[in-house]
Specification:
CATH class: Alpha Beta
Catalytic activity: an aryl sulfate + H2O = a phenol + sulfate + H(+); Hydrolysis of the 2-sulfate groups of the 2-O-sulfo-D-glucuronate residues of chondroitin sulfate, heparin and heparitin sulfate
Enzyme class: hydrolase
Cofactor: Ca(2+)
CATH topology: Alkaline Phosphatase, subunit A
Largest sheet: 8 strands, mixed
Structural class: alpha/beta
Oligomer: single chain
Main location: other
Radius of gyration: 23 Å
Helix content: 25-40%
Keywords: Calcium, Glycoprotein, Hydrolase, Lysosome, Metal-binding, Secreted, Signal
Length: 530
């Protein structure tokens, strides 16, 4: 029984082929006012912390409140485990290969019509605060160049070594000041503006936490490798419940994992104590994030708006926090790709746990469904409303059923091959590049939730079926090769724009500590690649 029946897979493939047909829209009875919507999207929150057993490590009272008052998704995924491409998918409702938001520098075109634009056009008052990060042109030069040069035959550390930093004392509640200021803005807007509106509103709050903080000790082009909090939040963490992740030896690592671990500066020695602390500080940062969500919920309740507002909480991706000898995201492992998704509000089933696989592209059609706006035909996602109403049985009815898989993909820095992940049933299938030059990975999440055993060699028939399903969704070898061409083109025009300064500029990016040991070697590796 280790392999899902091939008949079942054949059905999946048929369903995959038909997944682009139109879906009926759920329209509430006429005359009922449309609910308002609040979306709180944070950064880097591991979705497994929102349900058992992950929720044993840290107290997240407002996430728990949302679970009691609404629905939690047990298998929600990012469509690309990095800030900008993930948000591009959430705001556009389209998979990453369709928007071509390949890296943190390349997001949506500024004139792209988002769900919020459509809601505004259809009578909603709209308001955004905080981190948006879905259009092109942000993030550092280092990020860009690292992404473009990932096919070059060299290994350079691009991040500071992950570390912790304790600030203030037990009275220090507001650690991440910028996030608290944006939370205050959202709260004030609810109290002063939303409360007087005669039409429904949609409010978006984007938070930076629990993303790690910059590490200036790593030089002028520092990464963000510092997990920082105060004793107030650290007290919310149950140290005894923190799992120390198992690591495979460096020689046994999948080649892409080795590249990621190395470029993220994680291949050195770490004591158990260090790893436990990094994880504890990360969980404390999650607790601070939860408190910001709490401020928004309390403001809605105080303004008498909670009962007529749909509240959605999610994140752009997770955080590995030293699982698989990595921190940050950019990986298809659960810590990085599994996101929180909780929804409460009018018509949404309370205390419901949804096992179906869903992903951030589902937010767009869900928003339109709530606002009763017909959805554009080409969207990659499906409305979550049938699941949220507790009508999962109807999902099987012909005409409107969501596929039994989700897709995530990654084309940015710290990973030296385009990566494609298909999650269906208990299986997670990860394919790379052209599907031939890098071995795939297959994990059974029911037997091996820590994803330590790659079963791809053991189940070749299953791998072939899953690969066929993946190719029915995206012609991934073609996408990988167009990303490779894009990277080379971008790099060459960047190099030309620098003229005589090229050698100096490239040496002093985030990898400067390694590069400067042998600049000639690394420059010639690039020339060879070009």
């Amino acid at each position: 029984g280790g392999v899902m029946g091939l008949a079942g897979l054949a059905l999946l493939l048929v369903a995959a082929a038909a997944w682009a047909r139109e879906r009926p829209l759920l329209v509430a009875p006429e005359g009922q006012p449309r609910p308002s919507v609040v979306l709180v999207a944070c950064d880097s929150l591991d979705g497994r912390l929102t349900f058992y057993p992950g929720n044993k490590t840290v107290d997240l009272p407002f996430i728990n409140f949302m679970k009691r008052s609404g629905t939690v998704f047990l298998n929600a995924y990012t469509n690309s485990p990095i800030c900008c491409p993930s948000r591009a998918a959430m705001w556009s409702g389209l998979f990453t290969h369709l928007t071509e938001s390949w890296n943190n520098f390349k997001g949506l075109d500024p004139d792209y019509v988002t769900w919020m634009d459509l809601m505004e056009k259809h009578g909603y008052r709209t308001q955004k605060f905080g981190k948006l990060d879905y259009t092109s042109g942000h993030h550092s030069v280092s990020n860009r160049v690292e992404a473009w040069t990932r096919d070059v035959e060299f290994l350079l550390r691009q991040e500071g070594r992950p570390m912790v930093n304790l600030r203030g004392d037990k009275t220090r509640v507001r650690v991440m000041e910028a996030d608290w200021q944006n939370t205050d803005r959202a709260v004030n807007w609810i109290k002063e503006e939303a409360v007087n509106l005669t039409r429904p509103f949609v409010l978006y709050l984007g938070l930076n936490l629990p993303h790690p903080y910059p590490s200036p000790y790593a030089g002028e082009n520092f990464g963000s490798s510092t997990f920082l909090t105060s004793p107030y939040w650290l007290e919310k963490v149950t140290y005894e419940a923190i799992k120390i992740p198992k690591w495979s030896s460096l020689s046994e690592m999948h080649p892409v994992d080795y590249y990621s671990s190395y470029t993220k500066n994680c291949t050195g020695e770490f004591t158990k104590e260090e790893v436990r602390n990094i994880r504890a500080f990360y969980y404390a940062m999650c607790a601070e994030t939860d408190a910001m969500l709490g401020e928004v919920i309390s403001a809605l309740k105080g303004a008498g708006l909670l009962k007529k507002t749909v509240v959605i909480f999610t994140a752009d991706h997770g955080e590995l926090a030293m699982e698989h000898r990595q921190f940050y995201k950019m990986s298809m492992y659960e810590g990085s790709s599994h996101v929180p998704l909780l929804v409460m509000g009018p018509g949404i089933k309370e205390q419901q746990q949804v096992p179906h696989v869903v992903s951030l592209v589902d937010i767009y059609p869900t928003m339109l469904d709530i606002a009763r706006i017909p959805a554009p035909r080409n969207l990659s996602g499906y409305s979550l409303m049938p699941l949220l109403r507790g009508k999962a049985e109807d999902e099987a009815s012909p005409g409107g059923s969501r596929p039994s898989w989700v897709l995530s993909e990654f084309h940015g820095c710290n990973v030296n091959a385009s990566t494609y992940m298909l999650r269906t049933g208990k299986w997670k299938y990860v394919a790379y590049s052209d599907g031939r030059s890098v071995p795939p990975q297959l994990f059974d999440l029911s037997e091996d939730p820590e994803e330590l055993t790659n079963l791809a060699v053991k189940f070749p028939v299953l791998v072939r079926s899953l690969d066929k399903l993946l190719r029915a969704v995206v012609n991934y070898p073609e996408v990988s090769s167009s990303v490779q061409e894009y990277n080379k083109r971008q790099f060459m025009s960047w190099k030309e724009s620098l003229g005589q300064n090229y050698s100096n500029v490239i040496a002093n990016l985030r990898w400067h500590q390694d590069w400067l040991k042998d600049p000639k070697k690394y420059e010639s590796a690039i020339d060879k690649w070009l």
